[in-house]
User: Fold these one by one.
Assistant:
Number 1:
Amino acid sequence: MSYPMPHFEIRPATPDDCALVMHFIRRLADYEKLLSEVVGTEDDVRRELFGDNAIVRAAIAYEDEAPVGFALYFFNFSTFLTRRGLYLEDLYIEPEYRGKGYGKALIQYLAREAAKNGCGRFEWVVLEWNKPAIGFYKKIGAQIMEDWRICRVAGDALQRLAQTGED
């Protein structure tokens, strides 16, 4: 007996996908035990992905017609390479669809986007405790940059820093 193979596809997000993108953001945050930090809304997603000054993009993975995951990304710049780069902000695959190659397919999709746009690099960060993701990223050829640390100024600290030196 043979079973039909599911159809898998990755499509760029459209304005009609804003609720779905927000759903995946919440699912990812829950997985990372950071759900309480999600303050964005569907309207925020719409503005940032499709508004006049949009710089963020999203791709959605589908098995048959069921959305199974997403990637959220944007272009940054490397001063040393003097070329743009593609930065993967978030990647998420629903647990019941993991192990089917869909995460790798999304990474490959983004690698093609990077190559198509003349990027000199493709980067992302991974939580130190997320050993399954670290193992997956190493397996596909990613170099884990052990000597680099993320610096962040956000919320009230960002507002204070922005006002420093103002008269």
Number 2:
Amino acid sequence: METTRQQKISRLIQKELSEIFLLQTKGMHGVLISVSAVRISPDMSIARVYLSIFPSDKGEEIIKNINDNKKAIRYDLGTRVGKQLRIIPDLKFFVDDSLDYIEKIDGLLK
């Protein structure tokens, strides 16, 4: 059960990271990255970020690239929310494959 503070920080991080990824992917034609969910630990030190990537076949490659550059992403996040958060949480990125799962279930039901 997340506290109200965890929910507020999760929404703030989700909004700011989505803007960061929007700016970074403008040069990459045909790639769309959206932040589907952010789960933050109770001590506010770790944020698990779930990314929905289109096209999904490039997902693992893009997640690897993001994980290699997560220090720069955390720095960008810190410059955006530094006045609102005392400690910028460590970011861990994961692929959100729920849309692929939904499509698979729809295909099986048809």
Number 3:
Amino acid sequence: MRKAQAKKLPLAPDPKFNDKLVTRFVNNIMWAGKKSGAYIIFYDALDKVAKVTGEDGYEVWKKALTNITPGVEVRSRRIGGATFQIPAEVRPDRKISLSIKWMVRYSRERNGRSMADKLANEIVAASKGEGASYKKKEDTHRMAEANKAFAHFRI
């Protein structure tokens, strides 16, 4: 085990919006180290979102991310031979990570021609409070609510 926690490397903001969150999102889209390809997919998706909604694609994407950001989650904890699902608050950094991962994962699972199409559809759905990534957030919250009785086991 390491003595000190590893330092987080600072992210460079993206070229178009000058936003570090966009870079973080693109890093999750990226496959096989092809970052420029991931940027193309992301920017194409935002253009398609702007066409469909008639609003700024970047703002719709940010709204979609906030809509699918979880507040609580359940964590497993073994107590006396039994494993309990204990509801816990999500750390701010983890909230963003989870919402990004869910959006990318469920856009990949969608039906569509290109990844940009699938991502655009997932962004529009999430901004309206629909879609698989929004459902995942709701399920996570429901699970935490159902296991509220075990909250006193919290660490």
Number 4:
Amino acid sequence: MQAESLKIGFGVTGSHCTIPEIWDALERLVAEGAEVFPIISSSVRTTDTRFGKAAEIIDRLQAITGRFPWTSLVEVEPIGPRRLLDIMVVAPCTGTTLAKLAVGISDTPVTLACKAQLRNKRPVVLALATNDALGANFTNIALLSARKNLYFVPYRQDNPVDKEYSMIAKMELLPETIAAALQGNQLQPVLL
């Protein structure tokens, strides 16, 4: 994928165990010349977990992108009227974020950034990481799969024996999914 001069909003939501999987793809996008604008949920901004401290995640995002993450509705609001982004990515995309997008709730920096993109008829890429993808969020995945300008990073069950409802995106396919979405195509197969 040639990402030179591409403006990417990169939303990170609270699937804390999945956040370490985004670093390689994010570094690849920046190395290929993309201008990345990190946007984080309040959970990522404030929660320390066994998978990493909030301050470490923020520092790493800033080190990779050269920008301090946007953390408020006020910071992301100009995305829509100013058409700041070519594409919006949410990686990882939690079940909560997925559900909010499915019903049009834009009360977080990440969901408002997605709404801004969609209002401008520009692509949004979702990289699922949710323990209830084949449960409560199955309907939301179906709803979003049918919407224009929404694309999924191909995903799979991550542990069908112990977590039968859980699904996760294959994060290494994020750059290829972005390239396909910019052409108006869903990278296939979407179900791995």
